[in-house]
Design brief:
The complex is a heterodimer of chains A (about 325) and B (about 260).
Chain A lengths: L1 H11 L6 H24 L8 H18 L4 H23 L5 H20 L1 H4 L12 E2 L2 E2 L3 H23 L2 H11 L1 H6 L4 H27 L9 H14 L6 H15 L7 H15 L7 H6 L2 H15 L3
Chain B lengths: L3 E10 L2 E11 L4 E5 L6 H9 L6 E6 L2 E2 L5 H7 L1 E3 L12 H8 L8 H6 L3 H18 L14 H14 L4 E5 L7 H18 L2 E5 L3 H7 L2 E6 L2 E6 L1 H5 L2 H6 L12
Parallel strand pairs in B: 3-8, 3-9, 6-7, 7-8
Antiparallel strand pairs in B: 1-2, 1-4, 4-5, 9-10
Helix pairs in contact in B: 3-5, 3-6, 5-6
Classes of the chains: A mainly alpha (about 325), B alpha/beta (about 260).
The structure holds adenosine-5'-diphosphate and magnesium ion.
Chain lengths: ~325, ~260
């Protein structure tokens, strides 16, 4: 019910706000896909630092194929997802040997490698200048150049993507992912092929990152390596950490809230990095579970708080 | 041909031979006990058989097929499933959720099936089976309790329930009654007996607690410093001089003090 209300509101508002706001909302939809798909990968415990790069892979795929192969928008967006999923699966193979902090660092290294390829391999990636003149998206003869039309296209992709990821999150597969996060050794001994399931999560997450990337490429009309730099990755991490990664809705809360904060702080442009850094640090210290963790904490019976407290105490003891 | 055939197995950690030149034959339908002092290599033996660790040498055959060096999930899929000496649970899930996750091997779901929700019927069958196992292990009352909130005895029992959920032919239990009170121990001992009687599961029981082993196993293998020290019926084991010496100081090896 709440979902329907939100969608109805989203369908009406573009006609009642300025075009720059419409564009901001479009970016918001793309960010939602990105944040929810990033969180999907983290359910296995694999906190990587290359998701933005995979968005870039999707963007480059859409830019190059859309430009040179003339593939239409509606086909290109999912196709960019598939290309990114393939690249993700390949990159994941060596990364399976790592986990935790090792995974974080290795994914960062692979991400930089991909960025290096964009910069150094001028044909076809265009070096630091990137790719310009990406064709205007068109849908059944309808020009999506209009910001309002593109708003609706991105909204549909966002809704479908989020719905699919929500279905996956409620499935047995997602439970296997969460099991791997809690105790990969136990999961493996209970029959979960941990390597295969981590690869699956990473591949699915990359697929949606690629979709987000294609949507960005069509929105901008030109892309370069700069669009996918560390700053953007840090924002992505902030969204997910502040919203909370434990449940499906956490990242959505995070993106929504921070988009609003971002918009309200337009005058404070140069203070933003410090402000968001400060917010991140405050959350990591005082609310590591993110905003979503407040909700069940209020409902949780005291006995459970006690059990958690006791468990926490045991972690303080060595051995 | 024995269900499990271990030949000349060894596992070294640097210079330490945790298991060496170890032979073991477990017949279908057996309840085999493996005992030995702390640090003897019992858990390492399980780790190697279950695929958690790669063997340094030797062969392991399960149902005539080599399983040495395979992934634990592949070995579990063949029907050899182990539990851990430590209490190992998915603590964010309730009892039912833990058992349900452990039914992974019998609930194949594809990503497209997950999106379309086509697995409903299979999940219903799985749920029924999970409930059956939970009742069998005696966890019916705490079916919907979070695993982290269960008593120690219940958590240990849940470990066994999860291993059963994988539908093993060979179940390897690593000190299943560790930390249990006498009442809980008696219940678990009964369960282990019933596993074979009702479900036809072959069991290897690694135990520190001698009484349990003497109680339920007809064949016992004694391991010390990674090597096989003795093998035989409980009566043969208690009267074996080597065994008594290995547990030095405790002239009565049925005593509670080791
Ligand atoms: N992963 C490991 N790395 C190094 N040494 C180990 C490892 N696992 C076990 N050991 C050593 O191997 C020996 C056997 O240990 P273990 O198999 O746990 O004995 P048990 O289960 O019989 O008490 C011990 O000396 C232990 O310290
Ligand atoms: Mg042990």
């Amino acid at each position: 019910m709440a979902v329907i209300t939100v969608l109805a509101v989203l369908c009406v508002i573009p006609f009642h706000m300025g075009l720059s706001r419409v564009d901001t909302a479009t970016v918001f939809f793309i960010s939602v896909i990105l944040a929810v798909s990033y969180r999907l990968i983290t359910t296995t415990g694999d906190w990587g630092f290359a998701h933005i790069i995979f968005q870039g892979v999707g963007a480059y795929a859409a830019a190059l194929l859309g430009k040179h192969a003339g593939i239409p928008f509606i086909v290109m967006v999912p196709l960019a997802g598939l290309v990114t999923a393939l690249v993700g699966a390949i990159v994941m193979y060596p990364m399976l040997r790592t986990k935790g902090f090792g995974f974080f660092i290795t994914s960062f290294a692979f991400g930089e490698l991909i960025r290096m390829i964009w910069v150094k391999v001028k044909d076809p990636f265009g070096g630091v200048g990137g790719i310009i003149n990406i064709p205007m998206p068109e849908l059944f003869g309808l020009k999506l150049f209009s910001l309002v039309n593109y708003y609706f296209a991105c909204m549909v992709f966002m809704v479908v993507s989020v719905f699919i990821m929500w279905r996956i999150d409620r499935s047995r597969i997602a439970n296997a992912w969460k099991a791997i996060h809690t105790d990969d050794m136990l999961a493996e001994c209970m029959g979960v092929n941990v390597a295969r399931y981590r690869t699956l999560a990473f591949t699915v997450g990359c697929f949606f990152a690629g979709i987000a990337g294609a949507l960005v490429a069509y929105r901008l009309g030109s892309i370069d390596p700069h669009n996918f730099n560390i700053n953007e990755m840090v924002y992505l991490v902030i969204w997910v950490v502040i919203g909370g990664a434990a449940t499906f809705w956490g990242p959505l809360i995070g993106v929504t809230l921070l988009t609003v904060v971002f918009e309200l702080s337009r005058e404070l442009e140069e203070w933003r990095p410090m402000m968001f850094g400060g917010i991140l640090i405050m959350f990591l210290i005082f609310l590591p579970g993110g905003i979503e963790s407040l909700l069940p904490a209020l409902r949780r019976p005291p006995s459970e708080h006690y059990a958690r407290f006791r468990k926490w105490l045991t972690t303080l003891r060595p051995g | 041909m024995a269900l499990l055939e271990v030949r000349n197995l060894s596992k070294n950690f640097g210079g330490l031979a945790a298991v060496s030149e170890f032979d073991l034959d477990v017949e279908e339908g057996e309840i085999r006990g493996i005992i030995g002092p702390n640090g003897a290599g019992k858990t390492t033996l399980f780790n190697v058989i279950s695929g958690t660790l790669r063997p340094s040498g030797g062969s392991i055959n399960f149902e005539g097929q080599s399983i040495a060096g395979k992934r634990p999930s592949a070995i579990a899929a063949m029907g050899a499933v182990r539990t851990f000496q430590r209490t190992a649970l998915f603590e964010d899930f309730d009892t039912m959720g833990n058992v349900s996750i452990a039914r992974h091997l019998h609930a194949k779901e594809t990503i497209f099936g997950a999106i379309l929700g086509t697995a409903r019927k299979m999940e219903l069958a799985n749920e029924r089976r999970a409930e059956e196992i939970i009742e069998f292990i005696g966890l019916g009352e705490v079916k919907h309790e979070l695993a982290i909130n269960l008593s120690h005895g219940h958590q240990r029992a849940l470990n066994v329930a999860m291993a059963l959920a994988a539908e093993p032919r060979l179940l390897m239990l690593d000190e299943p009654v560790a930390g249990m009170n006498p009442g809980e121990t008696a219940v678990m001992t009964d369960i282990i007996r019933n596993l074979r009687k009702d479900w036809g599961i072959t069991v290897i029981l690694v135990e520190h607690d001698m009484r349990t082993v003497m109680d339920v196993c007809e064949q016992i293998t004694v391991i010390n410093f990674g090597r096989k020290l003795a093998e035989g019926t409980p009566d043969e084991i208690v009267s074996n001089d080597d065994v008594i010496e290995a547990y030095l100081g405790s002239e009565d090896i049925l005593g509670e003090d080791f």
